[in-house]
Amino acid sequence: MSHAGYAQVTAIEHFDGAWCRAQINRVWSNLTHKRKTLLPFAPIHSQLSFPSGINQGVQEIPVRNIVGSVDRAFEFDRDFRPLHKNLRQRWANVWALHAQRGWEPIVVHQIGDLYFVEDGHHRVSVARDLGLESIEAVVISYPT
Questions:
Q1: What is the DSSP string of 45-62?
Q2: Average pLDDT across the chain, whole number
């Protein structure tokens, strides 16, 4: 098996594990009535006094502080584990890409110490799966 083929098989195994943990988390959330989905950006953004963001350029940001999504809050759980099987191939491709050559920066909106993903949900999910501490991101910040 080629290196690329091995990376793809390994990536799918990692996706399946992350997806299973997300399903267990979903059941537990239902039993405890505690919400475990990503925070949606829109309701928080609508409460800001200054709704225009400032592009801060590319920065290394802590993965653990990425807590929400601009428009895909229901595709991943709070720990950025995939909630739907239809994300499998894209997720595995992103995982294999990281193993081969790395990624482009994600795009996030920053409010305080928290980040909301606009572009790069799969990269964040894979970064969490790999245990990465930080990830490169184009940061758009909002005064609070």
A1: HTT-S----EEEEEEEEE
A2: 85
Q: In whole angstroms, give the CA distance from residue 23 to residue 29.
A: 10
State the DSSP H helix or E strand holding residue 143, giving kind and residue range, or none if neither.
none
43 burial (CB, 10 Å; 0-12 / 13-18 / 19+) is exposed
Structure pTM?
A: 0.83
Name the residue with higher pLDDT: 9 or 143. Answer: 143
Q: Where are the alpha helices (DSSP H) in 2-40?
A: 3-32
Q: Which of 105, 101, 108, 131 is CA-nearest to residue 18?
A: 131
Average pLDDT over residues 75-86: 89
For 97, the enclosing helix (H) or strand (E) is helix 88-100
Dihedral sign computed on CA atoms, order 66, 72, 78, 83: negative
| Strand-pair partners of 115 | 66, 110
More confident residue, 7 or 60: 60
Mapping DSSP to helix (H, G, I), strand (E, B) and coil, where does residue 2 land? Answer: coil
CA atoms within 13 A on the CB side of 142: 20
Residues 105-140 pLDDT 10s: 999 999 999 999 999 999 999 999 999 999 999 999
